[in-house]
Amino acid sequence: MSLMPNKPVPALELDLVGGGRVSLAAEKPQKFTMVVFYRGLHCPICRRYLSELEKLLPEFEKRGVTVIAASSDAKDRAEQAKSGWGLANLRVAYGLTIEAARNWGLYVSRSKGATSVGIVEPELFSEPGLFIVRPDSVLYWGTTSTMPFCRPHFSEILQSLDFVVAKDYPARGDA
What span, in angstroms and rounded, lies between the C-alpha atoms of 22 and 49? Predict the structure, then answer.
């Protein structure tokens, strides 16, 4: 299933590391909410990716963008990722079901055992995706990958957000 720009995204309600829950429908960003789906604790590329995002969170906040990172990891693995990866300010959500991942158009992979960092992959987990959602839960921008590699750079996303807001640039890809 792929999502369409200018159409509502699926519901997203997950528990957060450190307590509480996040509900996309309850987000009240000035401009957008960016949902970053990551593979999980086992992924060294996710570690680098989310660490970069952590550093740039103030830039997203300045632009009126709230940020959520989410995975299909269980609570203990998500806690390890948040603390071990130094994600002090990033909201890290966990427990994304495989069905919910598929509803978001994410690709799903089976475990191949331990990764290069020696952490065993879960039996099933979602591959990366990044979605920028309007405050009314309508998709503005989205990208998914079948692999852990070649993800959108957060610095480029920030530049693009500056452009789309300044030019009132419409969502694309809905024809």
Answer: 21
